[in-house]
Design a protein that fits this description.
There is one protein chain. This protein is of the alpha+beta class and about 180 residues long. It contains five helices and eight strands; from the N terminus they run ααββββββαββαα. It has a single domain, classed as Jelly Rolls, CATH 2.60.120. The strands form two sheets. The chain has a four-stranded antiparallel sheet with strand order 1-8-3-6. The N and C termini lie far apart (about 40 Å).
Length: about 180
C-alpha cells in the first residue's frame, strides 16, 4: 500500500474511532473527517506523564488503547486519584476553550495509544463546522450537571453513589 492510500486508511480508521467516543459520537461523520485530519496519534509507555497539573494546556487527548489515571494534588500535597480512563474516553477538553493551566495531571497506567487534537487545529475545524462546538457543549453541560449532582449529594450528606443522577452518560472525565 502506498503512503497516500495508507494515510487515507488511517484517516478513515480515526473517523470510525472518533464516532464511537462520547466526545464526538453526536458529530456527523462528514464533519468528523475534518477532525480526524488534524489528529496526531502517538504512543506512551506505562508511567509516562501526559499532562501535568498547573502546566499550560493546548490540546485534548482521546485514548485509543490503554488506561490513563487522572490525579490532582491536594493542599497538603497528597495525590488524589480522580479517575481511571479507558479507550474512547478523553481528557484535557477544558484546555480547548480557555487559556488556564491544567487542573489535573494524567499519567499512562499501561502502554497507551492516544489521539491528540491541538486547540488551534480544532478551532479551525469548528469555524468551518460550527455544529461540532454545539455537540461538544452538550457533552460539557451534561458533565457539569453530573458534577453539580455530586456536590449536592456530598453537601446533603448522602453516601457516595446515592446522589441524584442527571441525564446522560458521563463516564469520561474532561476536567483537566
Amino acid at each position: 500500500m502506498d503512503s497516500k492510500a495508507l494515510k487515507s486508511f488511517d484517516l478513515l480508521e480515526n473517523v470510525i474511532f472518533l464516532k464511537k467516543t462520547p466526545l464526538f459520537s453526536a458529530v456527523h461523520t462528514s464533519e468528523l473527517r475534518a477532525v480526524a485530519a488534524v489528529v496526531e496519534e502517538f504512543t506512551v509507555e506505562a508511567g509516562g506523564e501526559l499532562v501535568k497539573e498547573s502546566d499550560p494546556g493546548d490540546c485534548v487527548y482521546i485514548i485509543k488503547d490503554g488506561t490513563v489515571r487522572i490525579t490532582k494534588k491536594t493542599a497538603d500535597n497528597r495525590t488524589l486519584d480522580l479517575a481511571e480512563l479507558s479507550p474512547g474516553e478523553s481528557f484535557g477538553e477544558m484546555a480547548l476553550f480557555d487559556d488556564e493551566a491544567r487542573s489535573a495531571s494524567a499519567v499512562a497506567q499501561t502502554r497507551c495509544s492516544l489521539l491528540r487534537i491541538k486547540r488551534d487545529d480544532l478551532i479551525d475545524v469548528i469555524l468551518e463546522y460550527p455544529m461540532i462546538a454545539i455537540e461538544m457543549l452538550r457533552i460539557f453541560v451534561r458533565r457539569l450537571r453530573k458534577s453539580n449532582a455530586r456536590v449536592e449529594a456530598l453537601s446533603a450528606g448522602r453516601p457516595k453513589g446515592e446522589e441524584r443522577h442527571s441525564q446522560g452518560d458521563l463516564s469520561h472525565h474532561g476536567n483537566n
